[in-house]
């Protein structure tokens, strides 16, 4: 018991030392530039982030921890989404990632939360460690960091945003540092847009997507947050219904026909063209 406690304390000490020691690669000007680019996208980035994770829900290594902890289903979905929005906001405020900054605290809190989830899920009888490895593993975190930086930099160009390669690379650098504080230790992280495309190819080859009842439940839970409240009436209910249909259209627009079909969500019909109304005309 004493040796186990000593090992735990030693591990905690290494974690604290890592958090308080900036890596050689960090460039604070790029970190701040990346945060500014993130803010430039505005509130449209938040639902986009929720929807772009849908294909990830079709991967068992990602779906299982969420399903077993109930972290993104039923009535908890909206609260979880708001918590995640707060995390995105905290980590992209000016100076937020500096020592004492609100973003730095949020990233470390998420690191602790991930540790608690691993501790809960690993011994669960439904978790096949031989097949699935460790919950919230390095590969999963690596892919999430790219979905938070490289992916919007490319896909949101379809809506009229015009980030430069330098803007996208700065956002990638920001999220690499956020990941560093959360415990992501990938041996390689893309630093250029060209490398970002290569990383996306690697991600697509690592794990095959297998849509399941759990993955579709997770997708529905997120999209249901846009539905009008059950007690909504009149114009409030009509507005909420239109908002839900528009967000369904955005999901279909971002994911494409096949990936959207895997979610099990209702076909938005012509609402799939709704995002085009947001395109900035120049």
Q: What are the low-pLDDT stretches, counting only 5+ consecutive residues below 50?
A: none
- How many structurally independent domains? 1
Strand content: under 5%
- The chain-level structural class is mainly alpha
Count of strand segments: 0
Helix content: 55-70%
Count of DSSP-assigned helices: 14
Computed over alpha carbons, the radius of gyration is 20 Å
> What is the overall pLDDT average?
87
Tell the overall outline: globular
Query: Secondary-structure element order, as H and E?
Result: HHHHHHHHHHHHHH
Q: Report how far the terminal alpha carbons are from each other.
A: 67 Å
Tell me about the biggest sheet? none
Helix-strand blueprint:
Elements: H1 2-19, H2 28-41, H3 45-52, H4 54-57, H5 60-69, H6 76-91, H7 102-121, H8 129-132, H9 138-147, H10 150-155, H11 165-182, H12 193-206, H13 213-223, H14 234-262
In words, what does this structure look like?
The protein is mainly α and 282 residues long. It has one domain (23-230). The protein is 65% helix and 0% strand. Helix 2 (28-41) crosses helix 11 (165-182), helix 3 (45-52) packs across helix 14 and helix 9 runs antiparallel to helix 11 (165-182). It is globular. The mean pLDDT is 87.
């Amino acid at each position: 018991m004493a040796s186990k406690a000593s090992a735990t304390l030693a591990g905690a000490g290494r974690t604290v030392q890592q958090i308080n020691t900036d890596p050689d690669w960090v460039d604070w000007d790029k970190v701040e530039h990346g945060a500014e680019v993130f803010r430039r996208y505005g509130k449209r980035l938040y639902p986009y982030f929720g929807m772009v994770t849908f294909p990830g829900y079709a991967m068992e290594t990602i779906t299982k921890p969420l399903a077993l902890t109930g972290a993104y289903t039923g009535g908890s979905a909206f609260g979880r989404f708001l918590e995640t929005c707060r995390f995105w906001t905290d980590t992209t405020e000016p100076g937020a990632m500096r020592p004492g900054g609100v973003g730095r605290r949020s990233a470390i809190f998420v690191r602790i939360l991930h540790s608690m989830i691993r501790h809960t899920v690993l011994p669960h009888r439904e978790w096949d460690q031989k097949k699935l490895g460790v919950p919230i593993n390095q590969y999963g975190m690596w892919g999430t960091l790219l979905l938070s930086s490289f992916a919007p930099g490319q896909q949101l160009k379809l809506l009229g945003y015009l980030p430069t390669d330098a803007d996208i690379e700065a956002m990638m650098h920001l999220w690499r540092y956020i990941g560093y504080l959360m415990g992501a230790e990938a041996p390689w992280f893309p630093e250029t847009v060209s490398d970002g495309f290569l990383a996306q190819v690697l991600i697509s080859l690592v794990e095959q997507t297998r849509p399941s009842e759990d993955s579709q439940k997770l997708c529905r839970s997120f999209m249901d947050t846009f539905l009008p409240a059950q007690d909504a009436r009149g114009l409030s209910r009509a507005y909420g219904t239109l908002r839900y249909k528009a967000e369904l259209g955005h999901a279909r627009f971002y994911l494409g026909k096949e990936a959207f079909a895997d979610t099990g969500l209702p076909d938005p019909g012509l609402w799939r063209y709704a995002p085009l109304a947001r395109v900035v005309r120049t």
